[in-house]
Structure formats: structure tokens, C-alpha cells
UniProtKB/TrEMBL annotation, chain A:
Positions of the Solute-binding protein family 3/N-terminal domain: 41-261
PROSITE patterns recorded: SBP_BACTERIAL_3
Keyword line: Signal
Subcellular location: Cell envelope
PANTHER family referenced in this protein's UniProt entry, alphabetically: ARGININE-BINDING EXTRACELLULAR PROTEIN ARTP (PTHR35936:SF17), MEMBRANE-BOUND LYTIC MUREIN TRANSGLYCOSYLASE F (PTHR35936)
Lineage: Bacteria, Pseudomonadati, Pseudomonadota, Alphaproteobacteria, Hyphomicrobiales
Annotated family: Belongs to the bacterial solute-binding protein 3 family.
Species, as recorded: Bosea robiniae
Name under which the protein is recorded: Polar amino acid transport system substrate-binding protein
Signal peptide region: 1-27
From TrEMBL, chain B:
Residue spans crossing the bilayer: 20-41, 53-74, 86-105, 139-164, 184-202
Record family assignment: Belongs to the binding-protein-dependent transport system permease family. HisMQ subfamily.
InterPro entries xref list: AA_ABC_transptr_permease_3TM, ArtM/GltK/GlnP/TcyL/YhdX-like, MetI-like, MetI-like_sf
Keywords carried by this UniProt record: Cell membrane, Membrane, Transmembrane, Transmembrane helix, Transport
Domain ABC transmembrane type-1: 17-205
Recorded topology in the membrane: Multi-pass membrane protein
Identification of the protein by name: Polar amino acid transport system permease protein
Subcellular location: Cell inner membrane; Cell membrane
Organism annotation: Bosea robiniae
Main subcellular location of this protein, as a coarse class: membrane
UniProtKB/TrEMBL annotation, chain C:
Membrane topology classification: Multi-pass membrane protein
Superkingdom of the source species: Bacteria
Family of this protein: Belongs to the binding-protein-dependent transport system permease family. HisMQ subfamily.
Subcellular location field: Cell inner membrane; Cell membrane
Residues in ABC transmembrane type-1 domain copies: 21-209
Taxonomy of the source species: Bacteria, Pseudomonadati, Pseudomonadota, Alphaproteobacteria, Hyphomicrobiales
Primary location class: membrane
NCBIfam families: HEQRo_perm_3TM
Regions that span the bilayer: 20-45, 66-84, 90-109, 146-170, 190-212
Descriptive protein name: Polar amino acid transport system permease protein
Organism: Bosea robiniae
Keywords: Cell membrane, Membrane, Transmembrane, Transmembrane helix, Transport
A Pfam family hit: BPD_transp_1
Alphabetized InterPro entries for the sequence: AA_ABC_transptr_permease_3TM, ArtM/GltK/GlnP/TcyL/YhdX-like, MetI-like, MetI-like_sf
């Protein structure tokens, strides 16, 4: 019986594969400021398909809030910035395995994320909102019965609706913002979780007066994230944010990409103080 | 801030084709070398060699390429090996392509009548010379068509390198999709480029298949 | 810091993972069945007397074979609504997978039909069989017998391809694994487990096809 043998052979080898990978605990070592300066390169993980945080401009060059902030940081360290594209679903893996030194990847501070990475003090606010058709009578979670809601997987919008889990709502998860927005415009979902910055962009593509902000869920604080043991490196980043806030460069960056004034933020990325403020229950 | 979808966007997508071609060539080269070894092991006279190669093929043909790339790219650093993305994709695609090519070539080697290798053995030829001068040249002729056919799969498969951060054709399309909110148009452009790359190869594969069928 | 493997965090999710496997198997089974029918019809169309049928069949096969599956599934889910045709994620996934599987199967089946000597057909006509009977008994079955191993390989590939439909929010093993990943951040553990689950499923499928091959396609020994 060839197939019995081949199945057994595979099962045994799979088990060995798991054991081997489990037994060897590898090294994605703690990061120090010195080692980065010595290497001469800062590897930054950023999202590259998130207007206005990180995206490519008309000439194909990467730009956006997180990208410029990363360049500012590299300049501060006196090293070269090297952007590694990450997505909201693979960024933590990229950081923990040492593919990047730091994440500036539209990453809001959440309690479960605090358990796996170390956040520096927040550098911007990010309001989570839900966007739907003009005229639909939706003001909060309770109005979502029978509504198809699209969210980008693993984002605050996803976390919020998964936690609130309104009865009768269908949650559809997509890989990124672009696909989520496209699902809304194509009529494949009735509502999407997104950010206030998306509303004018959607109007530009779908035509004005079709989609609007339905309700704000929360204000999250985005911050640099580093590997848990890299306390000294996180300290440097917090100090960097404090200096750039004081110098006015960070508020200027916010005005340029997001618009308006940068609101007050907690002065630490750790503990409950840094968690999002809930706006709608 | 959202861009219109215009000529420069289409060109930006087109520029991803370089990486796609390079990735395909790397995958084919790596997969070819290791695949030949796998095919020889699979047709070896030693049972344990056959079994090892069999497991190798079963494992990589039985799991999604997406998972394989993910495990190589994020798994190797965890095991203590620092790798740059090019090394990671080279390893990932080599493993994947060698399993498929190994299986295709095993079939081709076994399609060469057994008498050939027996006759060579009777003439006192060594294993290496038997393979190099008698079996492999004939097997190669049989395998050309399916090998070119697999190239098509491989070119399309390189699109998965996007998930580990490579800006190739698919990723370029995705970046444009998110800057214009027009995924369909962006992916449509990418599809046309893939088609232009793959269609001639598919045709070639079919023609070779026919030519061989007539000869045999 | 070293990465500490911890598979125990996944334990609370075993029911979800099992459901993911079930959804993947279901999705594959439906798409493979539909794909086989589409494949047979397309292979027939390729041999048709009517040029229009031949051209339509070739165009369909070439487009599907030479473009990535991701683009195909995006086209169906995001593109067709512009023409007023809208599908739920799961229906879109099944449609895309069936069309994909159908095109690849058609090529394999056509190869099998070509391999059946023309004499078979003439012998059938001489015996007074109707064209449909000829096709069913002395063309399709021997052809399927020749190509079944290649066809089952194609079916297992369809099973593996289902992992891509998570991109249009269709629920199956990969999308469930990704969701668990975003809740636990245990990427390696979850992807190792998912890989093993896929491996198990593709073996189950391969085994099933071998059984079918043995029961249905083996020549009577008597």
C-alpha cells in the first residue's frame, strides 16, 4: 500500500519538522542604538499602500507621513534609511524576526500588541471611523443588523468590530485598505472601517455625495514599535518624538499629510495611558 | 492625494516586470539544479534515497507556496539565520521549483526504456556515464515540454514574493491600486503583462509536446 | 531576546481551525466537481466542428492558464459588479476556482482524448453506437483512465489554490489562520499548523483520488 506508507512517512517527518523548529529558539537579538549607528543603515518597516501614511507618489517614489518620519529618524541617527514594505498582517512577524529594526507602520498602541512588542511614545493620533452610504441610518454598533461591513484584516477597525461583534452584522476581512475601499465602491459591502483621511479620497474616486463618515469609533495613538528587550532603543525613539514635537517638525508633518492640528497625546507608549480612547460604545 | 490612473501608473506597474523575470530565472536555475538531484535520487536504486526524495516532493507539492515562502522568510531568522530577502526567496523558490521539476524529470527518466540503461550497464558504463551519456539526453527530450509548461506556473508563482516585501509585478500593481483606489484596473494591467510573458511559453510548450508526440 | 515557540496559545482556536479545514475541503470539492464538468465540456468544444466553439474554448483556456489566479478572483469579485453582476465572497471564490480548475483540466482531458486512437471512434460507429454513447463509453472513460493521475494532481493544486481566496474575504483555512494570527501574534506557530493541515488535506485528497482510480478506472481482472 504505497499511499499508506507515503502518508505515514509524511506524518512522521512533519512531526519532526515541528519538533526541530520548536527546539531551536533562535535569535532576533535586542537592538541597540550603537549597533544601528555602527551598521550605518536603519531598517524601517512601513506600510506602502496606505494613503497618506505610506504610498508611492506620481514618480513612483515612496512617500507619506510614516516614510518622512522614518527619514527624519535616520537623519537624526546619522544613518541611511532603508524601507522594508510590510502589511498590517505581517509587520509584527517582520519585527520579531529581525527583518527590520523598527516599525513605523500605522501601528496603533493596543493592549494585546503591547504584550508582544515595545512601543515608544506615540507620534501621532489616528481616528478610527466607519464609512457608509449617504442616507443609510447608521449611528453605532446597534444599527448594523443585516449590514455587510468590510475591514482591513488585523487593523484597529477589525479589532473594534470583532470585539463589539454586533448581532446580525456580516464582517468581511480584506488584505488591505485598497481592497476594502474597492469592496465599498463596488457595492460588495455596505460599510467599511477606515480612517477620516480616506473620506475625501473615496469621494474623488466614487464621485462626491455617495459615501460619508458614519461614526467615530476611537482615537488610537500610533507609535514606533521595537522588539521587547530593546529598552534603550525605545528610549531613544521616545526622546526623538519628544524633541520633534517641541521643535514643531512633527506637528508640521501632521498638518502636511493628515491636515489640522496634532492633538494632545500620552507621553508613553506603555501601560493603559497609551491605549485608544473609545468614542462610541 | 489620490492619483488618477494614467500612463505613468501603467508604466509604474510595468517596471515591476524586471523583478518578476529575475525572480523567475533564479527560481528556475535553483530549482533546476536541485530538481535534477531530486529526480536522480527518486530513480536511484537505493530505497532510502528514493524515500527521502519522495518525502521532499510530497511535502513541497502538498503545501501552498504561500506557506512555504512565509516559513522560509520568517522562520529562518527565528532559527538564528539572518537572511536578506533575495536569499530567502532564492531558498523558498528553489525548494518549491525543485520538487515540481524533480517529479517531472523523474517521469521523463523513467520513460526512457529500461533496456537502454541495462544495455549501458552491460557495456560496463559507470552510473555517471550511464546517466550522462545514455539516459539523461533521452529524458531531456521528453521533459522539454512539461518543463517549459512549469515555467509558466513559476512565473505566476513569483507573484507570491509580494507578501514578503518584493516589489514585483503584482506588488507594483497593488501599490498603484492603493494609490489610485482602482485595483481592478491596476491588476488588469498586471494580468496583461503576465499574459504577454506566459502565453508564448505556453504555446512553445504545446508545440514541443506535439513535435515529440509525432516523433515517438 | 529569543523567539519562544508556544503552540499552546493555539489550543483555544482548534475548533476554528477545524472549521477552516472543513470550509477549505468544501470549497475544493465543489470547485473540483464543477471544474471537471467545465473541463470536459471545454475539451469537447475544442474538438467541435464549429470554429466559434473552438475559438471560444481556446480563448478561455489561454486566458486562465496565462494569468495569475489572484487577478482572476479580483476580476470576478471587484470587476463584475461594474457590469451589474454581483457575487457573495464564497460564490465568487467558487466561480473563480471552478473556472481555473476547468481550464487546466480541459488541457489534460484534451490530451487524453487525443491519445485515444481514432480507430476507437470508428469501431464504435461500426458497432452502431450513438455519438453520445461512443463518447461516454469508448472515448471519455479510456481517456479519463489515461489522464486520471495528471488530473488528480491538478485537483490537489486546486485545493492549494483555495488559500488565495482569502484576498476577497472568503472564509477558509488561510483567512481563519490570518485572523488568529492578528489576535495572538503567534505567526510561526499558526503558519506551521496551517501548513501541516494543508499537507494532511492534500494527502487525504490524493488518497481519495487513488482509491477512485483503483475502484473505477482499473481494468477488470477476470
Amino acid at each position: 500500500m504505497k499511499w499508506v506508507e507515503s502518508f505515514r512517512r509524511t506524518a512522521v517527518a512533519s512531526a519532526m519538522f515541528v519538533l526541530a523548529t520548536s527546539a531551536v529558539a533562535g535569535a532576533a537579538a535586542a537592538q541597540t542604538v550603537d549597533s544601528i549607528k555602527k551598521g550605518g543603515v536603519l531598517k524601517i518597516g512601513s506600510q506602502v499602500s496606505q494613503v497618506p501614511w505610506g504610498f508611492s507618489d506620481a514618480s513612483g517614489k515612496l512617500t507619506g507621513f510614516d516614510i518622512e518620519l522614518g527619514e527624519m529618524l535616520a537623519k537624526d541617527l546619522g544613518v541611511k534609511a532603508e524601507v522594508t514594505p510590510v502589511t498590517s498582517s505581517n509587520r509584527v512577524a517582520a519585527l520579531l524576526t529581525g527583518q527590520v529594526d523598527v516599525l513605523a507602520a500605522v501601528m496603533g498602541i493596543f493592549a494585546d500588541r503591547q504584550k508582544v512588542v515595545l512601543f515608544a511614545r506615540p507620534y501621532t493620533t489616528n481616528d478610527t471611523i466607519y464609512i457608509g452610504k449617504v442616507g443609510a441610518d447608521i449611528k453605532g454598533w446597534n444599527d448594523l443588523k443585516g449590514v455587510r461591513v468590510g475591514v482591513p484584516r488585523g487593523t484597529p477597525q477589525d479589532i473594534a468590530i470583532t470585539k463589539a461583534a454586533p448581532a446580525g452584522a456580516t464582517i468581511q476581512r480584506f488584505d488591505d485598505d485598497a481592497a476594502t475601499v474597492q469592496a465599498l465602491i463596488a457595492g460588495q459591502v455596505d460599510m467599511i472601517g477606515g480612517a477620516a483621511t480616506q473620506v475625501p479620497n473615496i469621494a474623488q474616486v466614487a464621485g462626491p455625495g455617495k459615501f460619508e463618515q458614519k461614526f467615530v469609533v476611537a482615537r488610537a495613538y500610533n507609535a514606533f514599535a521595537v522588539r521587547p528587550a530593546s529598552r534603550e532603543w525605545a528610549g531613544y525613539l521616545s526622546d526623538f518624538v519628544a524633541r520633534k514635537l517641541a521643535s514643531g517638525e512633527l506637528p508640521a508633518l501632521y498638518k502636511k499629510w493628515i491636515g489640522g492640528e496634532l492633538a494632545q497625546m500620552p507621553t508613553t507608549g506603555e501601560g493603559e495611558a497609551a491605549l485608544p480612547i473609545s468614542v462610541v460604545q | 492625494m489620490i492619483r488618477e490612473f494614467g500612463l505613468s501608473e501603467a508604466l509604474a506597474i510595468l517596471s515591476g516586470v524586471q523583478s518578476t523575470i529575475l525572480l523567475s530565472l533564479i527560481a528556475f536555475a535553483g530549482g533546476g539544479v536541485v530538481g535534477l538531484a531530486i529526480a536522480l535520487m527518486r530513480t536511484s536504486e537505493r530505497a532510502w534515497l528514493r524515500r527521502c526524495a519522495g518525502f521532499y516532493i510530497d511535502f513541497f507539492q502538498g503545501t501552498p507556496l504561500l506557506m512555504q515562502l512565509f516559513l522560509v522568510f520568517y522562520g529562518l531568522p527565528v532559527l538564528g539565520y539572518k537572511v536578506n530577502p533575495w536569499v530567502a526567496v532564492t531558498i523558498g523558490f528553489t525548494l518549491h521549483a525543485s520538487a515540481f521539476l524533480g517529479e517531472v524529470w523523474r517521469g521523463s527518466i523513467q520513460a526512457v526504456p529500461r533496456g537502454q540503461s541495462e544495455a549501458a550497464y552491460a557495456l560496463g558504463l559507470s552510473y555517471v556515464s550511464r546517466m550522462r551519456n545514455v539516459v539523461l539526453p533521452q529524458a531531456m527530450r521528453i521533459s522539454v515540454a512539461p518543463t517549459v509548461g512549469f515555467m509558466v506556473q513559476l512565473i505566476k508563482g513569483t507573484s507570491l514574493a509580494a507578501i514578503i516585501g518584493f516589489v514585483e509585478l503584482s506588488r507594483a500593481a497593488q501599490i498603484i491600486a492603493s494609490a489610485t483606489y482602482k485595483p481592478l484596473l491596476a491588476y488588469g494591467c498586471a494580468a496583461i503583462v503576465y499574459f504577454l510573458l506566459c502565453f508564448p511559453l505556453s504555446r512553445l510548450s504545446m508545440r514541443l509536446e506535439k513535435r515529440f508526440a509525432v516523433k515517438s | 531576546m529569543t523567539y519562544q515557540f508556544d503552540f499552546s496559545v493555539l489550543l483555544p482556536y482548534w475548533e476554528q481551525l477545524l472549521r477552516g479545514c472543513w470550509l477549505t475541503v468544501l470549497l475544493s470539492a465543489i470547485s473540483i466537481s464543477a471544474g471537471l464538468v467545465i473541463g470536459i465540456l471545454t475539451a469537447l468544444a475544442k474538438q467541435s466542428r464549429f470554429a466559434a466553439a473552438r475559438i471560444a474554448a481556446s480563448t478561455y483556456v489561454e486566458i486562465i492558464r496565462n494569468t495569475p489566479f489572484l487577478v482572476q478572483v479580483f476580476f470576478i469579485f471587484f470587476g463584475l459588479p461594474a457590469l451589474g453582476i454581483s457575487f457573495q465572497p464564497w460564490s465568487a471564490a467558487i466561480l473563480a476556482l471552478s473556472l481555473n480548475c476547468g481550464a487546466f483540466s480541459a488541457e489534460v482531458i484534451r490530451g487524453g482524448i487525443d491519445a485515444i486512437a481514432r480507430g476507437q471512434y470508428e469501431a464504435g460507429t461500426a458497432l452502431g453506437l450513438k455519438p453520445l454513447q461512443i463518447f461516454r463509453h469508448i472515448i471519455l472513460k479510456p481517456a479519463l483512465r489515461i489522464i486520471f493521475p495528471a488530473l488528480s494532481g491538478q485537483f490537489v493544486l486546486t485545493l492549494l489554490t483555495t488559500s488565495i481566496v482569502s484576498s476577497i474575504s472568503a472564509e477558509e483555512l488561510t483567512s481563519i489562520a490570518q485572523s488568529i494570527d492578528t489576535m495572538t501574534f503567534r505567526s510561526f506557530e499558526i503558519y506551521i499548523v496551517a501548513t501541516i493541515l494543508y499537507l494532511t488535506m492534500s494527502f487525504a485528497f490524493a488518497t481519495l483520488f487513488k482509491l477512485i482510480d483503483r475502484l473505477y478506472f482499473s481494468y477488470p481482472v477476470k
